[in-house]
Design a protein that fits this description.
By secondary structure, the chain is mainly α. It is 89% helix and 0% strand.
Length: 103
């Protein structure tokens, strides 16, 4: 079976083997796609790292606030305890004085 001139022209216009510009543009396209994916991954990693650092900062602030609140509570309780102890001592002395006066 002989190829006609029309078939040869079509074969010449649409080759089955890819040409070098097609191969190079395909490789460059995939390289750009890979580069884009790497950049996107790096941006996600940076955002996650920033969020993690913010969480650590918030946790440290919460710990400081907890310690400050605990110290204030201990001071208030000790102040209240000192006040109650002083009142107890005052009542004790007052009772003794009353007893002494009544004798």
């Amino acid at each position: 079976m002989q190829a006609t001139s029309q078939q040869l022209i079509i074969a010449r216009e649409f080759p089955a083997i890819p040409t070098y510009p097609f191969i190079i543009s395909t490789i460059l396209g995939f390289a750009l796609l890979a580069l884009s994916a790497m950049y996107h991954g790096q941006q996600e990693r940076l955002l996650a790292e920033e969020s993690y650092n913010k969480t650590l900062t918030d946790l440290a602030k919460a710990e400081e606030e907890k310690e400050r609140t605990a110290a204030m509570l201990a001071y208030a309780q000790s102040k209240q305890g000192r006040k109650e102890l002083a009142q107890t001592k005052l009542n004790y002395h007052a009772r003794n004085e009353i007893v002494v006066i009544m004798r």
